[in-house]
Amino acid sequence: MKKFLYVAFFTFVFLFTASIIYLSTIGIETSKLNNLVIKEIKKKEPQIEVVLEKIKIKLDLKKFQLFLSTNNLKITYQNVEIPITELRIYTKLVKILKSKIEINQIVFAIEKLKIQDMQKLSIRIKPSNFKTYLLNNFEGGEIEKAAFDLNLDKDFKISDYQMSGTIKKVKAKIKNNFTIKNLSLNFIADKELVLINSVNASYKKFLISNGSIEVKKKNKIEIKGNFKTKFDLEKTQLSELFKGINFFKVNKIKAKGNLLHEFNLKIDKSFKIVDYDYKSKGDISQSQLVLKKSLRNKFIKKTLKKITFEKTNIEINFNKKNKNLLAFDGLYSTDNLNYKKFKIQNSSKKNKQTFIIDLNLSEDLFIDIINFQADSKKKSNIKSKLIFKNNKFIFKSINFTEGKNIISIKDLILSNKGEIESFAYIDLLTFKNGEENNNFKIDLNKKLSIVGEKYDSSHLLKLLSSSKKSELLKNFNGEIIIKLKKLITKSQIPLNDFVLMGIIEKGKFNKLSSKSQFSADEFLDITLKKDPNGKKILEIYSDYPQALLTDYTFFEGVKDGNLFYNSVIDETGSASKLTIENFKIIKAPAFATLLTLADLGGIADILSGKGMSFDYLEINMTENNNVTTVDEILALGKSVSLQMSGYIEKKTGLVSLSGTLIPAKTLNILVSKIPVVGKILVGKKTGEGIFGVSFKLKGLPGKIKTTVNPVKTLTPRFITRALEHAKRK
Question: Is 197 exposed, middle or buried (0-12, 13-18, 19+ CB in 10 A)?
Answer without folding.
Answer: middle
